[in-house]
Amino acid sequence: MSKTALIVGASGIVGRNLATELAAQPNEWKIFGLARKPVSIDGVEPVAADLTSTDSLRSALDRIRPTHVFLSTWMRQPTEAENIRVNSALVRNLLDAIRPHASVEHVALVTGLKHYLGPFEAYGKGTLPATPFREEQGRLNVENFYYAQEDEVFAAADRDGFGWSVHRPHTIIGWAHGNAMNMGVTLAVYASIGRATGRPFVFPGSAVQWNSLTDMTDARLLGRHLIWASTTPAARNQDFNIVNGDVFRWSWMWQRLAQWFNIEPAPFPDKVSPLEIQLADAAPVWEQIATRHDLIEPKLNSLVSPWHTDADLGRPIEVVTDMSKSRRLGFLDYVPTDDSFFALFRHLRNQRVIP
C-alpha cells in the first residue's frame, strides 16, 4: 500500500464516511482511525488517544507513519475564546506528535461555513459576505476557532513541508451515534415521533430559510472530496467549499421529507417553533417507540441535536455555497440533497435507529 491515512475523529460523521470511502480502495490505503473511544469500522485499525494529552498522542502514534492526515474533530466549549484555545491545541498537539516521523505528505482540515457566517457567539451577525459564498471572500474580522485551526495547519506545513487543504461543508447529512451536530438524524427522529403520535410535522425554522435557496453536504461526498484534494497536485494548498451541487428551498424539501415518512407536512407556522421546544417533552415518547420497535437507542438526547438544527433552520439570511473552485480543478461529483436524506433514512431504518 502506497498511502497511509490517519483519520482524526474517526467516530464522527465525517470520519466514518471518509473511512468507508478509503476502505473502498483497499489496495491503496492503510487506514488508522483515531478517536477517544474508537468504533469498529471495516478496514480501519482503531487508535485510542486523547487529543488534549500530548503524552497520550505520542504513545498512540509512535508506531504509525501517516502519509495523509484528515482532521475532522472539535470540542465544543462555552465561549469562542475557549473554542479557540482548546480546538487550536487539538490540531497543534496532533501535528506535533506525528512530526518526528517526517512521513506526512498532506493534511486535510474540515471546518465549515461558519468561516463565512461567524462563530456561535456572532453567528450570522454583522457584515457578512454576499451569497453564494466563495473561497476568495476570505475571513471575517472576528475571532473564530476555524481560523485558529487553519493557522495551526499552515504553520506546521511551513515548518515541515507538507501540503494542506481546507474543506468547508455546509450542514452535513450522515450518521454517527451521539454526534452533536446531526440535522438528518434529528429530523428523522422528529418525523418518526410525529408518525407514531400524530404530532404535526412543523418546520422549526425561519421564514427566510423556508423561502430562500440553500444547500447541504452529503457526508459520503465530503469523504470523496477529502481524498480527491489530498491526492490531486492542483488542489495542494487550497481551501474549498464542498456541497452537494444542487440548491433547494425548505418549502419544497419539507414536503419531500414528510412524503418519505408517509406523514402530512404542517402548514408553515405563524411563529418560529424551534425543535428545542417541540421536543422538550419527547424523551419518554421516544423511549416508548424505541421499546416497541426494538431500536438500538432509547435515549432521545443521544440521537438528536435540536440546538444545532434550530440554529441552521432559524438563520435570518440566505446561505448558498459556490463550488466553482473544485469544479474547475476537476472534482465533479454531485448528489441531490433529497437523495442524501433518503439514503440516510434508509440506513437508519436498516440499523434500527428509527422504526
What does this structure look like?
Helices cover 41% and strands 13% of the residues. The protein has two domains: 3-172 and 216-242, NAD(P)-binding Rossmann-like Domain (Rossmann fold); 181-215 and 247-319 and 335-349, no CATH class. It is of the alpha/beta class and 355 residues long.
Keywords:
two-stranded parallel sheet, 355 residues, 14 helices, Rossmann fold, alpha/beta
User: What structural class do you assign from the helix and strand content?
Assistant: alpha/beta
CATH class group of the largest domain: Alpha Beta
What is the total domain count? 2
So, CATH architecture of the largest domain?
3-Layer(aba) Sandwich
Strand order of the largest sheet: 3-2-1-4-5-6-10
Give the helix tally. Answer: 14
What does the average pLDDT come to? 95
Q: What is the number of strand segments?
A: 11
CATH topology of the largest domain: Rossmann fold
